[in-house]
Amino acid sequence: MRRLDDRPRHLQIAADLRAKILSGDLTEKLPPFKRLQEIYDTSNNTTQRAVALLKAEGFVEGQQGKALLIRARRVEIIDATPYFEPAVTHVRYVMLHVGPDHPPADAARKLGLATEETAILRKRLTIRDAIPIELSWSYYPTPIATGSPLEQPRRIPGGAPTALADLGLPQHEFVDEIQVRQPTSEELEALELPAGIPVMRTLRTISTEDGTVVEVVVMVKGGHLYGMRYRRTLPPIG
Q1: For residues 97 and 72, what is the distance between their CA atoms, to the nearest angstrom?
Q2: Under 8 Å between Cβ of 65 and 58
Q3: For the CA atoms of the chain, what is the radius of gyration?
Q4: pTM of the predicted model, to two decimals?
Q5: DSSP reduced 3-state for 199
Q6: CB of 123 within 8 A of CB of 137?
Q7: Are the C-beta atoms of 190 and 135 separated by less than 8 Å?
Q8: Is the separation of the CB atoms in 227 and 78 below 8 Å?
Q9: Backbone angles phi, psi at 236, to 5 degrees
Q10: SS3 of residue 33 by DSSP
Q11: What digits encode the pLDDT tens for the residues 111-148?
């Protein structure tokens, strides 16, 4: 059966405008309300509801009756990396919890934990320019983390990569598995998400050169203003 878009009209219009802003097809200013009504063949009320969503999501700014400006910083593309260095990336970490905890089932499988086994959790909120950008749960095997800076409730200079290297377990590779879903209440509140915005959930498995899993991270970001950039050098063919 052919799928038809049966969303309310203002959601359809907001989705179309959002896509054009993110692709760069719309820049600087939104068309006037009258022109938007003509483009989408809809009422002024429906157009206003669509634009209100974009304003709540941070894509446009301005007051009714004036030109609505499209924010120059429409989306924050974050390089996929095991650790953001605060001095370089202008981020800060708020430590929310450190201690033994039961990982979610998919993270526990990556760590090779039995059902009742725990790992050492470092849970934190990452903030850039006063805006929360990521809620993360980093799990470390208890035998590795016990007695190390990883189980201390404070920031680690150089982050977990440095702590693991000092333990003789330097990170060598990470594998990301990404899902998009609606946020939990905790995620919505911590990331200050507008209603209806999905999140990008990344399950990252980090291992040493010999394949030992030393860290599994669950990272959640708002799906409206943040994205990930991955780079990989491709081997020559033949």
Answers
A1: 35
A2: no
A3: 22
A4: 0.81
A5: strand
A6: yes
A7: yes
A8: yes
A9: -65, 150
A10: helix
A11: 999 988 999 999 999 888 788 889 999 999 999 999 99
Alpha-carbon span 60 to 56, nearest angstrom? 8
Token pair for residue 121?
A: 């959790």
The DSSP bridge partners found for residue 69 are: 29, 61
Q: Are 74 and 57 in contact (CB under 8 A)?
A: no
Label residue 115 exposed, middle or buried (CB < 10 Å: 0-12, 13-18, 19+).
Answer: exposed
Angle, helices 33-40/44-57, rounded to nearest 10 degrees: 110
Q: Which is more confident, 152 or 226?
A: 152
122 near 83, Cβ under 8 Å? no
85: its two tokens:
């260095």
* pLDDT tens per residue, range 5-34: 888 999 999 989 988 888 888 888 899 899
C-alpha angle with apex 160: 157 to 162, nearest 5 degrees? 60
Q: Rounded distance, CA 69 to CA 28, Å?
A: 6
Q: Is the pLDDT of residue 85 over 70?
A: no
